[in-house]
């Protein structure tokens, strides 16, 4: 089952791919090219943010899993301790 963020990422990525194809193959006017470029840039930024959020979620889950296996509570903040 896809999450909302997953669906949003896929939709944004598909639109970004369509923009790239349009810019490469259809030879749009300068004004349209600029508008497509701006939309593509915004979509790329959105995708990057979604990927970073997913990575943070995975890291948090991994840290919690490692702490559970060691018997230690998960640490949310780096307190400078070596372990």
Instruction: Give the fraction of residues assigned to helices.
Output: over 70%
What is the average of the pLDDT values?
Answer: 85
Instruction: Tell me the number of helical segments per DSSP (H or I, 4 or more residues long).
Output: 2
Class based on secondary structure composition and strand pairing: mainly alpha
Q: Write the element-wise H/E pattern from the N-terminal end onward.
A: HH
First-last Cα distance: 36 Å
Q: How many E-type strands?
A: 0
Low-confidence stretches: none
Evaluate the radius of gyration: 20 Å
Largest sheet: none
Q: Choose one word for the global shape.
A: rod-shaped
User: What is the percentage of strand-forming residues?
Assistant: under 5%
Describe the structure.
- By secondary structure, the protein is mainly alpha-helical.
- It has a domain at 7-62.
- It is built from two helices and no strands.
- It has helices at 4-25, 30-70.
- The longest helix is centred in the middle third of the chain and has 41 residues, at 30-70.
- The model has no long low-confidence stretch (mean pLDDT 85).
